[in-house]
Amino acid sequence: MEIKGHTIIFATKDNDEEMGKFYKEILGCTQDENGLWDLGGLKLGFDRHSQAAEKALEPFRCMVTLTVDDINKTVKELQTKGVKFIRMPGQEFWGGWFATFQDPDGNYLQLFQNGEPPKE
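== Glyoxalase/bleomycin resistance protein/dioxygenase ==
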């Protein structure tokens, strides 16, 4: 199989209003005519599923990672909007920086900054 790239990730949701507000007002994403959220070229879709009736029980299993230029600045900006972080910016052994937070349904998302240490 040859994978041609990534285009859409689907996740389940419970609360349309909270999720829409979070992705639009907090993260600043736009929604297309099909209801998919644009995450810098990657599309994120939400739907309901009969086997997923509650918040994510194991949210570390699948995470959307958003690349940013200044992870510390982005964390501070999101905190002023009420976003709670599970992991504050930290450097991996190979050099990348990550911070982890949750959306209203408990799905984990990560901020990622490559290379240089984040600006203070």
